[in-house]
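Lab notes, practical 5.
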Amino acid sequence: MGLIKDKKSQVDETLEILEDLKKELLPELNNNLAKKIALNLFDRFAVIYSSSEHFDAVVTRFRGQLAENAKTLSSSMFLPEMNHNEIVGWQYPKKVLKNFVV
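Output from the prediction step:
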């Protein structure tokens, strides 16, 4: 009907600008440790271990950040509990454990 002029050049220009912004704002996965961790945690249940002596607050904070920002549950444990009881618990149920990440 001729009501709208051809917008192909403007769409192409917008796509080019968006591609440049993506490269600038979203570094490649190889250079982005946070992105690697996020992809590893995606759609999995995270179990976070640390020593209670130095990192208990860090682990608790990280677990809280996963819940609040990623909207996902996780669990945190402190060493030396992992030395025996926790380790034997990692055997079963295999079907569930395949969706866990430590």
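Observations recorded by the TA: The two ends are 61 Å apart (CA to CA). The first helix runs from residue 8 to 25.
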